[in-house]
Amino acid sequence: MGEKIAVIGAGVMGLATARALERQGQSVVVYDQFESGHARGSSHGRSRIFRLAYAEEEYVRLAQESLGLWRRLEAETGETLLELNGLLEIVGTLEESTAQTLEACGVEWHRLDGAEAENRFPIRVPEGSFAVLQPEAGIVRADKALRAFGRELDIRYGTRVHPDELEAEVVVVTAGSWVNELLEEPLPVKVTRETVCYFRPENGRPIPSLVSFKPDSHTHDMYSLADPV
Question: Pick from 40, 159, 163, 203: CA 20 to 30 A from residue 28's CA?
Fold first, then answer.
């Protein structure tokens, strides 16, 4: 007798999916070909950006909904998962920022000139640019989130499987860069390697998450975020 639902991939997407299904009374088993928190995917490390600031209203609405769900997960597990020291968008014009979308969705935001932003946060704002601050943003503790989602789940680490091998009624694939090895119809997935640099701030001011934009576009130029360690 196989499990009712199988999830392939035990990153944050897979574990969050499995936890939500179990809360609905489903029987779920999660499989991952590697160990917990492995560095070959996208869910390892200590922090990821959390923000409500997106150019598309539907993403802002999803992020607003997720904020309440993160707080519920914190309450249920006793873990502090969100550290919200704000998000700064460094832009040359207001149109480059997400301010218009945030305004339409009723999300708080503030315009800070370069001097004010540099006074409040350990950053440098290029001449001719300014910052849009979205306070309900910062980081999610990625490693703690994996542990919180995975509590009480049946997770089979070190187990490489294919949907055709499983007796489950439903198979959910959250396999990241390996997804097209598991699907009959491939998805337009492009695997990239991200280069990460670390810097130690000189003072104790709060570190916001930060996004800069290429001129005259909504294309991101660079991200930065706090490492809690």
Answer: 40
| Coil, helix or strand at residue 137 | coil
CA dihedral 201, 204, 205, 208 (to 10 degrees): 60
Q: Are 83 and 76 in contact (CB under 8 A)?
A: no
State residue 118 phi and psi, 5-degree precision. Answer: -70, -30
For residues 101 and 56, the answer to whether their CB atoms sit within 8 Å is yes
pTM of the model: 0.89
> In this predicted model, what pLDDT tens digit does every residue of 97-144 receive, in sequence order?
999 999 999 999 999 999 999 999 999 999 999 999 999 999 999 999
């959250």: which residue's tokens?
174
d(C-alpha 175, C-alpha 191), whole Å: 12
- The alpha-helical segments, DSSP class H, found in 85-191 are 99-104, 114-120, 142-150
Helix crossing, 57-77 with 142-150: angle to 10°? 70
